[in-house]
Amino acid sequence: MSEPASQEGSKPVQENGKEEKERKQEATEVKVPTESSQSVPSSSALDNSSNVPETATDEIKSQEIHLEEQTKASTDLIKDSDTNVSKNFVVRKPAKVIFNLDPDVLNSKLEQPWKKNFYKRVEARAQAMQQKIINKDNLKKELEKKAEKKFPRNNLAKEWFNTENMTLKTRAYLLDKLLPTLVPGVEKMLMQVEKKKLWAEADITTKFDPINHLGEYLMRNNPYYIKDSGMSGYQRVMRDVTEELKIHVPNTIGNRVSKMKESIKQKREERECINEVKIKVANIRKQALQEQFSEWILDPKGMIPLVVIQNVLHEFFQNPDFQLEACCKQLDIADSMGPRLNKMEFTEYISSYIADFKSETFEKLLKHLCHCADEFREIIKTDMRRQMFAELFLCCDRGKVGFLGRQRTLALLETFYDQSSKMLRSLLRNPRQWPFIEFEEIDLPEFWGDMDNQKHIYEDFDKVLLEINALLSEKHASKTQSKLLETPEDQHKHDEYTESTPPEQQRGTTAEQEPNRISTKEQEQDKESTGKKELYREIVTKQTHTGSTPEQGSSRELITEQRRHSDSVTEQGHSDSVTEQGPPQRVSSSKQGVHMESTAEQGRHRESIAAQGPHRGSISEQESHRESVTEQEPHKGSRAEQEPSGEIIPEKQQDIDSTLQSGRGSIFRESRKSRESASFEHTEILPQEKRTQEQIYEEELFVSPELQEEVPISRRKYHLSGELLTCNWNMDYIKCEEEEQANLLYSSSRFTDLHAIIKNIQSYKEVKGGSAFNGVSFNLLQFVQLLETFVGEDAPLSVSETLTSFFKRGYVETKEEKISGLEQIRHNASRVRRELLLEALFQKWDSDGSGFLDLNEVDELLYTYKEGMEKESMKKAKLHIQFPKPHPGQEVRMSSKQFQKYIQLVVSELRGNEDHVLESVVEFLMNSLERSPTENLRNCARRKWLYRIQHAAETSGVSLEPVYTETFKALTQDAESHGNKKISAHISLLEENRLLPDRGNVLLRNVASTLDDAPFVLNRVLYRDMKGISFTVVDEGKPIHVPQVQHHGNVFFWNNSINKSDQNGSFLALPLQDAYMRVFGVMAVDTLRDPQKINIFVPHEIRFYQGVANVFSTAYHYVHSREHILHVVITGIAWLCEITSDITTITTYFIEPGPKQDSDYVLRNMMVTRHLGLTKIHRNPPIIFRKTCIFRDFLFKCTDTSEVILASVCGENHIVIPLRERTGKALGVLDFNIGRNKMLLYREFKDLQKMIKVVQAACYEILGEISGEIKKNYILEIENVGEVQRAGILFFRIMLQELQESLQLLTSLDFVSLLLYDYHPSVEPTYLPDTKSQEVEANTKLVHDILLAVILFIHPELELSSDFGNWDKCKMYVNRHFVTNICAFDPTARHVEVNLKLIGEYIRDHSRIEVWKFGNSVIEYLYHWAHICLTLMELSKKTSSAIAPPLPSKTDSYVYAKMPKGSLPGKC
């Protein structure tokens, strides 16, 4: 320790010695020029005058030496003082005890004292040296200033400056090296000549030689050895000239430095210019944003919520065309509407994200802001409507039961719809059609065979749309002709552009010339869209008043023309504004016609209502109220929005018992009858001047939409105040019954031991939020959404107010219904309370997390209740329950659901109130179970690990990798925490052995393992003929524990490199079982890597590992159920895309729990299907939060209510359909984007319903089979191939079953009408026109081809017979056994051999539209049946590739999937 310390101490002394030597050298260097200057002779006056600079120089040098001595003395003083301090003593401060301090901070404070002193001395020395240099530089500057004052500059030296290239280098060299010394020498020599008066050659003495004198001067003043003694004015100017001249010498330092300086200066100027331009652009953009701020709806303080602007930016950054995903990541979207922005904050906030945007991108952002401002205006309007309907719900729910009857609500909507005017019905949606009624409420013949175009959700939609297209085409043709007469060349170019470019692309390629203006083309498109809407309303109005007088018709035409004129003025006056005036286009330009009337059954219902005469008559009060509402609407809207909106907290939501779901079909069948038989005596509409008042109301409806939506002044009536229902209407209005019952149990002192378990159950709840659809009642969210869907987005608020007042008068509940509702609430609360108590009791009993209880142990404790007095009654409960099969050793294991059911049956056999008895039994069992604190802590930790496995499955995005990870984490953490072991584990799944069937029908493949064993275990296969106990576990279905593997002769070791002497440890093999207790794999755990000698698994560890295997099985099947549902959806989408053309995109979402424990659920964008039917499936699906969907809230509205949503966003219409679980809650969403079409044509709308019904039925079947609620039903032979293959054809199998049931409902007369189709051109009547004859021929060919195709399926031998070409003989196969043979036909059976090519030629020659126009239900059934059979046959031949799971692999970010195209029906 002493040696390094002495070396460190000698270093400062050596450094000080070096500094002293340097100072001495500097002092000698200063003295040399002083002595040389003193040795110069000075005798004459001229000499004295010339030596003035030398005297000044001597003074300056002496001052410099004095300054150096002072600096040296101060440095020595500092050095001595430091040395004295360091040599005398060292003081060490007492150490401090510091808790919770950062290690870095602690290390910095614990530095050694010598290091601190050393750094202090070095710092002082460095400061002294720096101060010396600064002082020297300052002194030189002062001396130069004094010299310039004494010696004025001589500009005669500037004559040396010449940049001629030939002599540049030479001149620069001479000026730099020679002339600064030569010129003063010549001057001195000439002065001596003048002094000695030797001007003439005769006067020159031999003693004075000018050359020698000049040489002596040059030698004495050699600049290499003598420092500069001062410069004259001529020399100073020469030095400046030399420096300037050096710059022009190429390939020199000065030249390169000058060029660098010039480039730096140029870049600096460019940068300054760019900054100035950026500042100007930023100011212009800020000004444009400030102008755009006025387009938004603001609160009374003139502010807008921050979350709205963040959603606007989020949607813009998410657009893949702009590639701004990095900006999207920087957005931290607020969770509430609280933070708000004024105009300046709005400008600065947006400017902070768009500083680097190009002009084109900024213009697109401005356009996006304008569209979002209009959309936000619609959101405010929709929010006002929702609040209105929410208040209506609370008003109608007079019993505060939390729900309203579904059938009564639909009946009132049907009444309101029937009594509305024609104009109003064109805006409303028909409540007798889907989605208001469910598929189960529609009869099969009506669902599959009804092709009446009049039964659409919009009345007369197809017909009106056809007239609109005809009128628009006529107008377009007239405009084109007029333009051709004026400028034929320009019009020819325009026609070429419009023909080559679709309208959507023409809109997208429009270039905006200024940030705060919209293009002329957009104005024309807005006018065109407004024209379509006006045409739609005009045509509907004309259809409404076909029987009116000419005066009335002319007045309506006058109103229409006036409104058109006002619209054109509005468009012209506001063409320079930033936003696009008016709402987005919602009327499509499709090509098909529409329906006009509803079904005959609905017509009879309307006639029966109309027959009530006095009940439907006058509505003078109602009509006057409507007029006053219409006139005072702007004032009421402003007052309503300025007033703070109070929070509405409804009563608790009533959940329907799960037993009602089993009778879903019967409920829906009874619901339709109850609606038809419902009486409406309470919905009296008073009679008075019916025709006049209806005309007035119709005119109000005809004008009010424009006044409220298209006139800019009316925008001011919408104000933003308080919170929007859009943001969090699910959390604000609905409270979970489970949470309330849990809070009640927390306050009860009887179940103190269960409080912690109940809290864990509530915190581990899967998906919080969302309402279940039950077909019987509506809660608040569902009721509000139903009315919103009924009213639509085009109807003004006055219609909602009228509907609200109508409901308040019409919705009247009887006393029995109120009592039934209250009883249902009590029953639901009791059920939830029972489930919570029994689940908490089960978890307390199952302290090891095994997932089951022993029935004998439960009975043993349960029979001691009331000292065994109720034992006989309890035994009766076993007669009503079916227990699982006993395990070896007569052990009957009950799961949580079986335990709850058993306890409830036991309670039902006891005397007394069931709720009180149940709580007494639970309290008795809770107190009888004695668990130590250690067991309770271990149980809590294990429950958390098991929950993470299930949570990983729910948030995995349909991937098993997170499930495997969490499973192995649970095993290893428990082994380390509760067993002090180091374990290894792997999971193997059963597969069919196709390669080597001699080694067994099945094999076990290792699909996952812990990290250490992955190289030896992963992807390895275990056959039956190999050593091992895994197949024994598979066969017996029970775990096997090998305490010491070295003494067991039937254990297979995957790692062959381990010596037999090191093969010490314990091995545990656990069966993985599904809901039907079938083994599908094995989970193995061992302690071969544990260094301890004794590492046997104890019983509580084995039970926990059984629980892990149970939870893993549940998670595994959860993921696979979602995968199978995706497979079904892909199949259904492919079927739909082949027969429809107006659907733009289809996006599939799944619901997942939120990232935080108490957060709202989120949506996963699983896949997107484009127009061509190509589906893009994401490997890492993006997550969508509710707070990012203010402008696209229809997704969360669908999942909240589990109802179909019809929404319009940014001019595009969406049909959002939920995928429901068996409980009625939504598990996913299908978003159908139909573009700018208001609605699909009725044919495509019906095909959409068929696809959704089949997909939903497949979801019910998949989920029921996974959970064990229903048994697997194998209908087709191909379903036995495997689960993945079965999911690929499940859509077609269910559709095949639906068609078979529909065919069985047909009669023989339906087929007889088809057999009469026979076309003979030779006997064709002459009076038929050509078009009619062609139609008859086409229909006959259609009937013959489809029937022949179906016959060839059932009777393939017909192809080889002589009867094949004769229709009269072929139609004999359509007999009484025809339908029976169709229903019994299995297209995937191995014995079926048909000519698919021949059948395909018959079927594929006819399009879907041709079959639809034919309008026969039998042909419709057979057409779909033949296509499905053809598809199934093609799939059965290539099951390995066509029905493979569509999910991406580990290395893919996404994958594309598409069904075979040839097997599906075509569009045209």
Could you walk me through the main structural features you see in this protein, from its secondary elements to its overall organization?
With 1468 residues, the protein is of the alpha+beta class. The chain has 54 helices and 20 strands. Helices cover 57% and strands 7% of the residues. The strands form five sheets. Strands 13, 14, 15, 16, 17, 18, 19 and 20 form an eight-stranded antiparallel beta sheet that branches. Strands 9-8-7-12-11-10 form a six-stranded antiparallel beta sheet, sandwiched between helices. A two-stranded antiparallel ribbon has the order 1-2. Helix 6 runs antiparallel to helix 9, helix 14 runs parallel beside helix 33 and helix 45 packs across helix 46. The N terminus is likely disordered.
Helix content: 55-70%
Got a strand count?
A: 20
Residue runs with pLDDT of under 50 for 5 or more positions: 1-57, 59-103, 484-530, 544-664, 677-716
Distance, first to last CA: 97 Å
Strand proportion, as a percent range, falls in: 5-15%
- Summarize model confidence as the mean pLDDT: 75
**Shape label:** extended
Major sheet summary line: 8 strands, antiparallel
The number of helical elements comes to 54
Class by helix and strand content?
A: alpha+beta
